[in-house]
Design goal:
By secondary structure, the chain is of the alpha/beta class. Helices cover about 35% and strands about 25% of the residues.
Length: about 325
């Protein structure tokens, strides 16, 4: 029976990093940088808009995908499936994945390209889909899955919460269809959803319910909007049982895991969750200190660094968990 194996990873973040002090200067906002760094772990980030770099979601996704393809030594023309996971797409339509396919493959091909939009869980859900399609479809040998984020494009002037948290970035993986004889490969995933919680945080203007009008712009009801504060303990309650159930779905236990990756929005939450799971911090990777919060991109960006820095090696059993507004949650379990 076939399965999907990660054979390449790549990331991209635009421009030079911006630390908290420079961020306040560039945006005119104020926040407690010391408390921010201690609690969330965010010290620097990359934001194209603040650096005057004319790049957006599709550019980030293309660069990360090319880096992953180079790492995997795979020709873009051999990719049969391309999925972009994001809730900050280049356009409402067409899908960002279609644009990236055109850039990578140069025109019409017998390939499939589409977006997964599940808030900040988009990459984990897209990876689960891609792995299952690749395992089931003999005609596909390679797939590329990209998680990409450009929320700063939607942040309004003076929004201290938005500017201090969100940042730009992209992470990508290349999957290969392999046989059971290969010890590496995707095992399983889980998802949870509660669409009754749609009205907490999001980009609500620009769709069919709330088209962008001059009146809307004048009222400041556009871009990233925080309608209700998210429960502070949501991920502490949510992530441990999801890690356990994902491992158990494959007949494994939490103690079998070599590495666990989480949504990179709050280091103190990750520390608390690892404590609940009775796992040492050496078994996770945090990258919010250098990238800020990159939403759909943060898990593959953390994966990239965990591999490059030797914390994930061939044969490592890895669990990934991501959660986002709406709310949507996804997990992955695989042997790297």
């Amino acid at each position: 029976m076939a399965k999907a194996k990660i054979i390449g990873t790549g990331i991209y973040a635009p421009g030079e990093p911006i630390d908290n002090a420079e961020l306040m200067t560039l945006t005119g906002i104020e926040f407690d940088a010391a408390k921010h760094e201690e609690r969330l772990g965010i010290r620097t980030r990359h934001i194209a808009r603040l650096r005057g770099i004319p790049e957006t979601t599709a550019d980030f996704a293309e660069r990360a995908a090319r880096a992953a393809l180079e790492d995997a030594a795979v020709d873009p023309g051999d990719v049969g499936l391309l999925i972009v996971g994001t809730d900050t797409p280049e356009y409402v339509s067409p899908a960002t994945a279609i644009l990236v396919q055109g850039r990578l493959q140069g025109g019409e091909r017998d390939s499939t390209a589409y977006d997964v939009g599940a808030s900040c869980a988009s990459f984990t859900i897209a990876l689960d889909q891609a792995a299952r399609v690749l395992a089931a479809e003999p005609g596909f040998r390679y797939a590329v899955v990209v998680g990409v984020y450009n929320m700063p494009a939607h942040i309004r002037p003076g929004d201290a919460f938005g500017w201090s948290i969100f940042a730009d970035g992209a992470g990508a993986v290349v999957l290969e269809r392999v046989g059971d004889e290969d010890p590496s490969g995707y095992i399983t995933g889980r998802q949870r959803t509660d669409g009754t919680q749609w009205n907490f945080i999001g980009v609500y203007a620009g769709g069919t319910r709330k088209p962008v009008t001059r009146e809307l712009l004048d009222k400041g009801e556009y871009g990233l909007e925080l309608l209700q504060r998210l429960p502070g303990d949501r991920n502490v309650k949510l992530w441990p049982p999801l890690v356990r159930s994902t491992a158990e779905k494959a007949g494994r236990s939490v103690q079998d895991l070599d590495h666990v990756l989480f949504t990179q929005i709050n280091r103190s939450v990750i520390e608390e969750v690892m404590g609940i799971l009775e796992l040492p911090m050496a078994k996770t990777t945090c990258v919010m200190d250098r990238y800020g919060y990159t939403g759909s991109a943060c898990v593959p960006m953390a994966l990239y660094h965990a591999i490059r820095e030797g914390r994930i090696r061939r044969g490592s059993l890895v669990c990934q968990v991501a959660s986002g507004a709406g709310f949507a949650v996804g997990s992955n379990l695989f042997v790297y």
